[in-house]
Amino acid sequence: MTSLEQVRQLSTINQIQIAGLIFGSEQRAKEVKQFLVDCEKIPEVQTNADFYNWSRKKQFLSKDKQGFSFMKMINNQVDDMEQYTGPMIYSATTNHYGVYLAMVVPALKILGTQEQINAWLDDLIQIRKAACYAQTELGHGSDIQSLQTTATYDKQTQEFVINTPTIQAAKFWPGDLGILANWALVFAQLIVDGTNYGVQSFMVQIRDEQTHKPLKGIEVGDIGPKMGYQVKDNGFLKFDNVRIPKFNMLAKYISISPQGKVMKEGDPKISYASMMMMRKLLNTVYPKAAAISLTIALRYSYTRQQFTNDKGVENSVIEYQTQQHKLLPLLANLFAVVLSGNVTSKFVDLNFTEVQKGNFSHMNACHSLLCGTKANYTHFVVNCAEWCRLSCGGHGYAHYSGLPSIYQEHSPNVTLEGENQIMFLQLARCLLKLLKTSQKNPEKIPEQFSLFKRINEILSFKCDQFQTSNILSLLESSVIHLITQTGMKMMQEIQGGLNPKAAWDYKLGTSLWESANYFIEYYKFVCFQNTILQVTHKQTQVVLTNLLNLFGVTILLQNPLALLENDVITQQTMKQIRDEYENLLNLIKPEALSLVESFCLADGGLRTTIGRADGKPYEYTYDWAVNENSLNKIDFSNTVNQLKNCRPKL
Fold first, then answer.
1. What CA–CA distances, in Å, run from 83 to 4, 31, 268?
2. Sheet-wide strand order for 171-172
3. Annotated catalytic residue: which of 417, 514, 521, 591?
4. Which UniProt keywords are present, listed alphabetically (predicted)?
């Protein structure tokens, strides 16, 4: 069996510098690594090896001590999103109050007046008031503008009347609602004097803070078991004309006079601010779950040996090109996702800093970019977990491998906080607008979309002889050709008699999706490329550049149609790209283990028998099966005897 230590010693990279890129700085990387090491010493934060033999009730209750232990470890800095990194990486599943702390607290800080922040923030952080984010309804999810819950202003009492007018309007799916929350940040249609002023947010108490019983007019509970998020109490909530004070509508950007006059300011998208912060979390923290998958799969691939070579010696499965093909492009994509996520995170922070000053100029670009990255990244994490599981053969199916839980727990992220296809369509709408802007006012194009300033130059690019230096130009060419063709197709449909909405909904969906997704792949490449410039260690720079190129050629090979249709490349060029892909697999293989281990993951957080740091998959797998599996501690003799006595009826 190949020693993992031998593989590590052959690596030429500087892991500390790479960890610094991943976590934002070398100091931050050291802090995260130390946090994960400290976690291994604290019994309360460990996820029991027998966790997936337990009932959902027992799983839920087991999270109490773990969640509060994590909070203690981060000094209760629950309103600092950066602090989530350690707990999210180490925990096997979602934690109690995670949605509330990640969404309600930021929403209050962004949408609330200073008076409202003073009234609620401290209680929220100390979990005296535990609020859920009650937006999604039975009948509407991503279509926020069509939510049916109403908040009708009563001028006589200066109160809002919160009501659920139909079964479709029942709040359904909010995390922390089913059991834990005693307050809810409710999104409802604001009605004043019969006029609808759109969806606004309201702080509503739903349970007594002492007895935890539902208040009058409130029907609330848990929705039941799901795929993934087993310990998350996603809930249902109905209102029967529940009255709340006028003060309880978050009012920094919208207010109502006692007489019922409605005053708005700023960009309407600011009402989605907390969703944007949650998407930031999905973009920066959750993708590191893919590092867990790849750490397990790559370590196992170096230690697992199958079939002999021409010398009669068993090969490590990583030596087979098919195994490299499964895992190494995922590793390249992981770095592209994480490093571009860091760039996006800084842009989100800049946007909200400017919003606080009354500057909304970055809002549209930030919203669109978050939509596209959320869709691309969350799909990648789930897809990565599945391919890592497949790459580990039979052992990958066992929960003890650590891989099935990653797939299950992260699958909901594809849908929550904006269903991915809808998110791509949001970005595509922005891209089509930029296409139009490029023709009239190119100076107004945001920096993140600067390739739209060079459309003519990009459309004229041809590549007869492939070199890795051409990758960026080819990705740019694909994006611009795709969005240009989509724009032309839309004009043709409109000229053929369809109205713009019908053309969008019924004729352009796949073209819009493809254009948006390809733009995000291009964006990831650019961010990855720019981040490499920060590296000072020469050999590390070489390895990361090879990894970047592997990511780029993988994208080109997955969808070369726009390039071929527009004669940007030839069949000979495609062959050259394929040859370079195979060459890059060979270059990355000896460095793959050290690259993925730059994420500083501790064995306890991996929750695996087959991907531990010491490379002993069989010893741990057998030990857990024998000693950790509660099923082996039960006497089934009576059950077996009853089964033996069963006779089929003829």
1. 31, 10, 29
2. 171-172, 235-239, 218-222
3. 417
4. FAD, Fatty acid metabolism, Flavoprotein, Lipid metabolism, Oxidoreductase, Peroxisome
